[in-house]
Amino acid sequence: MSYDSIRLEKGMYRESGKTFSQVLESLDPSEAYQGTALEGTDAFQRQLKRFGIRARGAGSDPVEKFFSTFESAVLFPEFIARVVRQGIDEKNILPSIVATVTNIDALDYRSIYSAAKGDDKALRLISEGASIPETVIRSKENLISLRKRGRMLVASYEALRFQKLDMFSVMLRQIGSYIQQMQIADAVDIIESGDGNSNGAGIYGVGVSPLSGTPGVLDYDQLVEFWSLFHPYEMNTILTSPSMMAKLLKLPEMQNPTAGLNFQGTGKFGTPLGAEAICCSAVPANYLIGLDRRFALEMVQAGDVCVEYDKLIDRQLERAAITTICGFGKIYDDAAVILEA
Questions:
Q1: Quick check: is 291 in a domain?
Q2: Could you check whether the bond before residue 284 is cis, i.e. omega within 30 degrees of 0?
Q3: What letter would DSSP give residue 68?
Q4: Does residue 208 form part of some domain?
Q5: For the CA atoms of 329, 276, 201, 115, what is the dihedral angle to 10 degrees?
Q6: Where are the beta strands (DSSP E) in the chain?
Q7: Whole-number Cα distances in Å, 306 to 6, 80, 139, 141
Q8: Residue of 328, 330, 332, 333 lying closest to 300 (CA atoms)
Q9: pLDDT at residue 120 in the model
Q10: pLDDT tens digit sequence for 134-153
Q11: Residues 42-76: tens digit of each pLDDT
């Protein structure tokens, strides 16, 4: 089936277990275009070409181009979802702190955990005839809470019909950015307080055993002592509040030429301990969260970015909700630790 002969209808958004783009791809596989001028495009992009809709650049079309026919109007909710998703993905730090992403088709989710503690995690020598040590995996006692985050898009068709799609996309990406910030705040909250299964991160204060120093003052010695708390895990990521990041940047060890050139040239701050340091406003003031991103956090999603397609197609915008549903769970409790200074 050629891309310009596909019949577009609202029901394509309702197919169970498939997104609109996946439905399009099943009808118009991208593999069929290898070696052609359309190689590298996906099924949705080919539909934009079919209706002559240019969505990017200074010469982008006005919003009303989507509503020139009923079939082209069917593309509009997917266009919004894609641009919002782009805003979520821009400068998204979740991939740097999440070990795995689980997609589900339900509102309830019960994760698993390893019951091994302390010496139980060691792979010891096994004598002849002796039993092999066990690692027990169990379901968590409480469900992981999924939170719905989103924004209501309110505008009349008349207000937007002549607005260029490129400018409209800027507003949609900002909505995606808002959603991303809330998801990051949810992740930080789960690290700090736990996912309802009594597994909040341990908090260590400067000047309180096992850390040395003076409360409220952060020195390099305390960073090294904090790093040593992670064994057998690896502190490969640090999340800091803006105030804590300022303290880190003022340490003499952070002011060597190599670290300075890297920060000034790329805006990325590396630490002498080898961890990636990320400034995040969702982290409480004077907190530094160290974690092993390979084992600390699970992200659970119920679907992708959701857009109310009926209102967008039939009523030409008016009010439409743009939402995501996701939650976070701890995997290994001691793979994330908090330093307070």
A1: yes
A2: no
A3: S
A4: yes
A5: 60
A6: 100-103, 112-114, 137-139, 147-155, 202-205, 237-240, 269-270, 276-279, 287-291, 297-301, 306-307, 318-330, 336-340
A7: 23, 10, 29, 30
A8: 328
A9: 56
A10: 777 888 888 888 988 888 88
A11: 999 999 999 999 998 888 999 999 989 999 999 99
Assess contact for 261 and 305: CB atoms under 8 A: no
**Domain annotation covers residue 13:** no
User: What is the number of other CB atoms lying within 10 angstroms of the CB of residue 193?
Assistant: 11
CATH code of the domain in which 246 resides = 3.30.2320.10
Residue 169 domain-assigned (yes or no): no
Largest CA distance in the chain: 81
Domain count within the chain: 1
Contact yes or no for 84/168 (Cβ under 8 A): no
Q: Which domain holds residue 262?
A: 196-299+331-340
Q: Extract the tokens encoding 7.
A: 């019949």
Q: Any bridge partners for residue 299, and if so which?
A: 101, 328
Name the residue among 67, 85, 108, 68 with its Cα closest to residue 20: 85
Tokens matching residue 108: 């309830």
Contact (CB, 8 A) for 27 and 43: yes
Least trusted range by pLDDT, from 85-89, 116-120, 132-136, 300-304 = 116-120
Three-state SS letters, 113-165? EECCCHHHHCCCCCCCCCCCCCCCEEECCCCECCEEEEEEEEECHHHHCCCEH
Residue 68 vs residues 54, 153, 261: alpha-carbon distances, Å: 13, 21, 53
pLDDT score, position 252? 84
